[in-house]
Design a protein that fits this description.
Layout: H1 9-33, H2 43-57, E1 64-65, H3 67-76, H4 83-94, E2 101-102, H5 103-111, H6 117-130
Antiparallel strand pairs: 1-2
Length: 148
């Protein structure tokens, strides 16, 4: 019998998260092999980023972001939304086929040409986190005596 068969608590959660990441990685491989996305710049890096972001907000670990997961994501990104706005966002991403966002829909949205609200928020957050804000240093010191 495998040693993880009786895993409980944190160990079970870790195993579940690892299985989830493996499933997402399999989907990423499909995108890597898909002719439609071959010309996408930095595709492996983008897919890795999508996988990590998606896994962070899949709260029920079922491979889907539900309304509460999306709510948490938007709050964490500093753009809280009402339940109605969240439902519209899910509808926009899934095309009305589901009440949750699966990973394939998420990746299609992020790589697609359409500007879904969720995509715009995630891109903005990504740029905000990756743009280094390097101050040029303190303002020049002024000698009081030199002031007119």
């Amino acid at each position: 019998m495998p040693s993880h068969a009786n895993a409980q608590g944190g160990k079970a959660f870790g195993l579940l998260k690892e299985q989830q990441r493996q499933k997402l990685e399999e989907i990423n491989k499909e995108y890597m092999e898909d002719q439609k996305y071959r010309d996408e710049d930095d595709l492996p890096e983008k897919l890795e980023g999508f996988k990590n972001k998606y896994a962070e907000f899949d709260l029920n670990d079922q491979g889907e972001i539900d309304l509460m997961g999306l709510k948490r994501m938007m709050e964490k990104l500093g753009a809280p939304k009402t339940h109605l706005e969240l439902k519209k966002m899910i509808l926009e991403v899934t095309g009305g086929s589901s009440n949750t966002i699966n990973y394939r829909d998420f990746v299609k949205m992020m790589l697609g040409k359409r500007s879904a609200v969720l995509k715009l928020v995630l891109i903005f957050e990504d740029k905000a986190n990756s743009t280094p804000c390097k101050p040029d240093g303190p303002p020049p010191k002024r000698d009081i005596a030199s002031l007119p």
